[in-house]
Amino acid sequence: MPEPIQPPPPDPPGDGARVQGHPGPPPLTQGGDTGAVLEDAPAARALAAWVSQWVRALKTCRLYDAGNPTVLQMRRELAAALPEILARHGPLELTFSTDGLLHRGVPLRRTQAGPDELTLAFVREGIRELSFVPGLEASEVEALLDVVLRATRPGGEEEDLVALLWNAELPHVEVRYLSLAGDLEGGGPAEVGAEGDGTVSLWPQASGGAAGPLGSAAAGIGATGRFPAGPAGAAAGAAGGAEVGGAPDGGEGEGRSDDRITLGPGADLEAAFAALDRSAPQVLEQFAALRAAEERRALTESALEMLRVAAPAGAGAPEGEELAGLLLRVLHQAIADGAWDEARAALAGGSEPGLDRRLQSRLAADLARADSLTTRRVVERLNRPEAPALESFVALALALGPEAVGWLMRVLAESGQRRVRRQLTQTVAQLSRDDPARLAPWLTDPRWYVVRNAVHVLGYIGGPAILDLLRAASHHREPRVRQEVAAALGQVDPDLARPVLLEMLGDAEGRVLTGVLRQLAQRRDPEVARLLLAWVLDERFRERPEDQQHHVWTALGAVGGDDLLPALEAELYRNRWLSRGQYARRREVARCLARLGTPAAQRCLARGAASGWGPAARVCAEALSGGGGTSGEQAA
After folding, report:
1. Contact 523/495 with Cβ under 8 angstroms?
2. Nearest residue to 598 via CA among 561, 567, 624, 569
3. Residue 588 forms part of a structural domain
4. Final residue of a domain: which of 245, 275, 310?
5. Bond into 436 cis (ω within 30)
6. pLDDT for 455
7. Residue 378's closest CA among 420, 419, 346, 347?
8. Is 551 helix (H, G, I), strand (E, B) or coil?
9. Top-confidence range, 1-10, 79-88, 250-259, 262-271
10. Does residue 631 lie in a domain region?
11. pTM for the predicted model, two decimal places
12. Using one digit for the tens of pLDDT, what is the confidence trace for 20-33?
């Protein structure tokens, strides 16, 4: 394709006569036959009005989007106007020069400071004339408008306007232009008419001088070419005896066909098409199979595959950083879509793109954010009754490493499936075993159930490292959290857990009291025994619910020793005529003596059973035999 040329000087000599029997254009300045000029004046006025409309349409199209109603209306009006002018006045010519725009010598647009933008776009490409013939369609006008818009846009100087007009296929628009490419394309002398009158030939040339795709074979700036703007022009030239791509001597050799170099004669097209027909079914079947396989693959899987291939090429900065950022975005989408195995493979390193620890931390931090859409979609998937493969999700979390603790705690807080919560609790404990402090932020969460989850995980971890974290949660306002703390303290050394349990015992009620007493009752503890004895001897102790009284008596028997016997034996024989629940209280005292299990405690029970005093004798006999007694209350 010829390169754009500098604007030619106005009115170069030897413009030549028009082809196809039409007379050549008149001089570009008014002169010669004045009558001819006046005769063309009405057509020139109509064409000048249309050119002004063309210029306004170009400006409007640059200012607004293609779908703007104003743009669409101006395009319709412009496309409809020119065919009407041609129907009234016949063929029209637009001649471009540095002095302005003319029609058969009549100035249409003349500027004082040189050509305007529209004229310059044609002049700089060596286009001297556009000819419009009747039969022009509105679609051709719109295509011409699009071509000029493309060539005059910012950066459009690199466009070849001649080539654009050729490719636009405008059969009712003829282009006359200057060519500098004759020697380059054809390498032959300037082509002249049979009589040597300076006429030019239509492109493509006949054999005897191969022409270029958009110009004649003439050499030098004075040579001109003319073609209808489209392949129809080429067909017209070929009908005159041109042999496209043939050698100058008519033999088989290197020549040109359109803009391609041809080496030798063309192939047998019929045979080629027959071969294509034979192979088409198999090729289509293979294509359909490949397409079906591609559609079955998840988009994220395909993206990760592409990144794996591209990773070696972007090993250095900044390409590596860009690939890593892209990989993070793809991983977010893969995790949200449930493609957990593929995401884990990308994190695994080795032949995969892999992530260094810094980027893994960034991914984990993104997932742990409260507003993470990825985590929200993961929770939705895990909350389904037919929960997806939980093992794949756990494997992904383990691949992320300890940095995933915050993310899993976020998922654990939102999960509604017991099976999921149980598995996630164990996974969080596994990831935070070496650093339980990762759970510290979750112990201050405003949601009590989140704090309980964190305490439950600490119970899985166990050991002295969790003691301070449990102490921080031991006075939580929610009893269910304190109850979980008491259970988790059972996984700590008793000597270390005892101070925290005693702190909790002071204001414990209900199940919290039960949990604390259960942990304290693991071994004999005289200090705890004296504390519980003071509780049971206090008159306010009778106001507690019976189940709580029972747990305290049970714990007292587990932690006490023989130093409690005097007080317990006195309580066994105490007679309170006006007090309710004496039988139940004596029965608890007797069972407490039985739980002490020492010889002294056994003798105490034996004395009570042989005392002959009914209330004490009965409960002591039941305690010695291991019986439970009756549930009804009996008077002393």
Report:
1. no
2. 561
3. yes
4. 245
5. no
6. 95
7. 420
8. helix
9. 79-88
10. yes
11. 0.51
12. 333 333 333 333 33
